Amino acid sequence: MKALLLIDIQNGFCPGGNLPVPDGDRVVPVANKLIDSGKYDMILASQDWHPAGHGSFASTHPGKKPFEMGMLSGKPQMLWPDHCVQNTEDAMLHPELNADGIDFIQQKGQNSTVDSYSAFRDNDQAALTGLAAHLRDAGVTQLDICGLATDYCVKFSALDAVEMLPGVKVRFIEDASRGIDPTGVKAAVDEMRMRGVAIIDSKEALA
What we know:
alpha/beta; Rossmann fold; globular
């Protein structure tokens, strides 16, 4: 059973969004090829779905600006611009993404007191989204992951998949992903590889 997990391909992370990833929209055509390929038995997507005033937003920390470090629930936290607020255009999946081909959408980041990069659990690792159980119940044996952003939500999702889905082959599709910081992207890819994630491109995924 092969599954594809698309991470946060939303307006907010594409050009024109509130937290744009450079060239984030360029993952959409590649993602559509993967969706339409017939190579996957199940296609899933994660969706950042923050309540207004989320604790990871710089606007909720007086005197702080986006991309400064702050604290959230007693832990260091990168503070972000307000983004992907529930039921706003910023939170919607990119309009050119073939959403009709997606079987299941996992929303995340709904607890205002903790951030949630991974599609599988909150950053404090205390609250699970239920995605791992969903994949286990479906009998998934291979999980390909791609999307936005490589150095944050994609990386954390891939690492959690390795840890929470023992026996499942996890692969990161590099050209179907984009990251925020080139140095961070390289470090993320190196960490994923070191932790057992296979690094591939879409040609290999579609072969």
